[in-house]
């Protein structure tokens, strides 16, 4: 009979120990879950911010490609005789044969 009492009494202490261990494990698992959930939210926010930044950079790339095209067109135009004539007339004041020149009188 004493063996039966010891088994019952020892089992009760063992059950309390198991219960405490299970509660501790459950607490640790829940804590890990909360930490991982918080990190997941932070990562989603970073992803959104990076996506916005990427979209802005892609827009800037498009604008710069358009600008580069305009510069290339201007470069080609600057190598033509028409551009040279225009600069000669407007900047240097030169005239071509057959042009009529009007001058202001200095009265």
Structure description:
- This protein has a domain at 2-68.
- The chain is mostly helical.
- The model is unreliable at 5-9 (pLDDT under 50).
- 0% of the residues are buried.
- It is 81% helix and 0% strand.
Largest sheet at a glance? none
How far apart the termini lie comes to 141 Å
Number of helices: 2
The overall pLDDT, averaged over residues, is 87
Shape: rod-shaped
Summarize the structure.
It is built from two helices and no strands. It is an all-alpha fold and 107 residues long.
Topology summary:
Blueprint: H1 2-78, H2 81-90
List keywords for this structure.
107 residues, 2 helices
């Amino acid at each position: 009979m004493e063996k039966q009492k010891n088994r019952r009494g020892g089992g009760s202490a063992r059950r309390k120990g198991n219960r405490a261990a299970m509660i501790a494990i459950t607490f640790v698992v829940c804590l890990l879950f909360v930490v991982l959930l918080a990190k997941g939210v932070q990562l989603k926010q970073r992803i959104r911010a990076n996506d916005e930044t990427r979209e802005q950079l892609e827009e800037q790339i498009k604008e710069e490609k358009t600008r580069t095209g305009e510069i290339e067109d201007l470069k080609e135009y600057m190598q033509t005789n028409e551009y040279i004539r225009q600069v000669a007339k407007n900047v240097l004041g030169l005239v071509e044969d057959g042009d009529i020149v009007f001058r202001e009188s200095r009265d």
